[in-house]
Amino acid sequence: MGEVCRICPKNCAVDREKHAGFCGVGSTSYVARCALHMWEEPFISGKNGSGTIFFCGCNLRCIFCQNHEISTCSAPDFAVPADAHRLCEMMLKLQGLGAHNINFVSPTPHVHLIADAVVLARKSGLFIPTVFNTNSYIETESLKRLDGLIDIYLADMKYSTGALAKMLSGAEDYPQKARAAIKEMYAQCGNMQLDADGMAVRGLVIRHLVLPGNVGETAKVLDIIAEDYPKDMYISLMSQYFPTHKANTLPPLDRPLLGREYARATNYALAIGFSNVLVQKMQSATPEYVPKWGVL
Q1: 3-class secondary-structure state, position 174
Q2: CB atoms within 10 A of CB 195
């Protein structure tokens, strides 16, 4: 990069050519998985799968992270280094396998690489949509670098409360930073647009993982979304929580989400008027759906 890193609100201000940032990422990006993925929202995965590229490293420290093997390690043994040309090759290979889109997962520390690689891939024949699958803890100026390059944003809105964000993810300023970032995503792409086959072509989906014992927090997040966006905003309420990583040490996160908790969350979303609420089956709350790491 050759300049101090201010991609995300951690504001490390390090030269990543010389030192890794808080996210653990230095001058080289590593990819832990490049493969078709069937377990995103139906209009993202479709029949063939989403062409996912999972990056290593993360700028949050979520104690319940289901991908902690790669979020807490920027270069695990099973990952491969990727520059813009290697990333371009991955995208074109996934497109050749029939992927409905190219889905960058945990992309925030790799914004500049992704921007360069997408430009290169489009010049080389990439025509399917690009997806930025993000925890939303990113500065709006970094997102502006992606304007015109990303077609679809899958954006987490994890918390409304700073104290909870600090305790569970190590980022007290998460609520306001994520709220601002999602507004920028919406300004770029608008609400979700589907083609004649029901597949996503452009737009924003706001995701929220319902946590055990925290349905009240979910309601506050939904209230924020209702304040900022129209009631036809696409919202993905996820039930896939299960205790993992460090969550086993902190009740009530040491237990699975209950069916009645998830029902309360979805009922609240509908009660306040949202018309495009995506729900999951409770059976999704299992390690079985955690991706197997490996690159094509």
Answers
A1: helix
A2: 11
Q: Is the pTM of the predicted complex or chain greater than 0.90?
A: yes
Cα torsion 78, 82, 86, 91: sign: positive
Q: State the Cα–Cα distance between residues 70 and 79, nearest whole angstrom.
A: 9
State both tokens at 255: 């237990």
Strands 50-55, 29-37: parallel, antiparallel or unpaired by DSSP? antiparallel
Q: Which two tokens stand for residue 232?
A: 């036809």
In the structure, what pLDDT confidence band is assigned to residue 287 with cuts at 50, 70 and 90?
A: low
For 28, 48, 75, 170, 196, the CA distances from 57, given in Å and listed in that order, are 11, 28, 8, 15, 37
> In this predicted structure, what is the pLDDT of residue 1?
44
Q: Mean pLDDT, to the nearest integer, of 153-179?
A: 98
Residue 240: CB atoms within 10 Å? 18
Q: Tokens for 106?
A: 């945990």
Structural domains in the chain plus CATH codes = 37-47+111-286 (3.20.20.70)
- Long-range CB pairs of 260-268 (<8 Å, 24+ gap) are 261/210, 261/212, 261/213, 261/215, 262/210, 262/237, 264/215, 265/210, 265/215, 265/218, 265/219, 265/237, 266/237, 268/215, 268/218, 268/219, 268/222
